[in-house]
């Protein structure tokens, strides 16, 4: 899993739909997730630490969690099927743990309000992320190809403390 953070809320230039943009810690990968207007407003208000005069839905849920001594341990965006992302809220109450299905936008809005981490499965990042720093990606690939082209079988046996020989 890769821990990600909310980098921005953007608007798709063509559809005018809001997108929550998640980025990894190195700012090398961005994961765009299309969301609704209400979820965009909820995420923006959490990012800007705006407290509504009365609790909105995500604030109400956080208040309920606190009232029942429950904790959101983390959010996991675990799959992408037919252009739809799926997430879970990983909850705990004392020793009891429970995963609850959630839309990623709602999970993100709640995670921001509780200070909980947002994790994304590697497969989802591989399938749906967009590169942010193509030059750094190419440099990493070049360095890896160079490393692999210079490796020899003896390098593995020497590092493990084994001696290569006819009976090894």
In short, what is this structure?
It comes from Allocoleopsis franciscana PCC 7113. This protein has 168 residues and is α+β, with helices and mostly antiparallel strands.
Word description of this protein:
Residues 1-132 form the BFN domain. This protein is an alpha+beta fold and 168 residues long. It has one domain (2-133): Bifunctional nuclease domain. Helices cover 38% and strands 33% of the residues. It contains six helices and eight strands. It has helices at 37-47, 57-67, 104-114, 122-128, 134-149, 153-159; strands spanning 2-11, 18-24, 29-34, 71-81, 84-93, 96-102, 118-120, 130-131. It has an eight-stranded mixed β-sheet with strand order 6-5-4-7-1-2-3-8. A hairpin with a 4-residue loop joins strand 2 (18-24) and strand 3. Helix 1 packs parallel to helix 3 (104-114) and helix 2 (57-67) packs across helix 3. The longest helix has 16 residues, at 134-149.
Features:
168 residues; Bifunctional nuclease domain; eight-stranded mixed sheet; 6 helices; nuclease activity; BFN domain-containing protein; BFN_sf
CATH architecture: Roll
> Taking strands numbered 1, 2, ... along the chain, how are they ordered across the largest sheet?
6-5-4-7-1-2-3-8
CATH class assignment? Alpha Beta
Fraction of residues in H or I helices: 25-40%
Number of domains: 1
Give the DSSP E fraction (strand runs of 2 or more residues): 25-35%
Per CATH, the superfamily is Bifunctional nuclease domain
């Amino acid at each position: 899993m890769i821990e990600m953070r909310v980098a921005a809320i953007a608007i798709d230039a063509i559809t005018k739909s809001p997108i929550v943009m998640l980025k990894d810690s190195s700012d090398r990968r961005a994961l765009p997730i299309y969301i609704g207007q209400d979820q965009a407003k909820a995420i923006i208000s959490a990012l800007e630490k705006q407290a509504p005069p009365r609790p909105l839905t995500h604030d109400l849920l956080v208040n309920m969690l606190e009232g029942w001594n429950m904790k959101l341990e983390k959010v996991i965006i675990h799959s992408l099927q037919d252009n739809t992302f799926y997430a879970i809220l990983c909850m705990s109450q004392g020793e009891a743990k429970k995963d609850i299905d959630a839309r990623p936008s709602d999970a993100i809005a709640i995670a921001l309000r509780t200070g909980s981490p947002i994790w994304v499965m590697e497969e989802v990042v591989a399938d749906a992320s967009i590169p942010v720093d193509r030059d750094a990606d190419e440099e990493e690939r070049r360095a890896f190809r160079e490393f692999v082209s210079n490796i020899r079988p003896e390098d593995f046996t020497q590092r493990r403390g084994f001696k290569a020989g006819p009976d090894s």
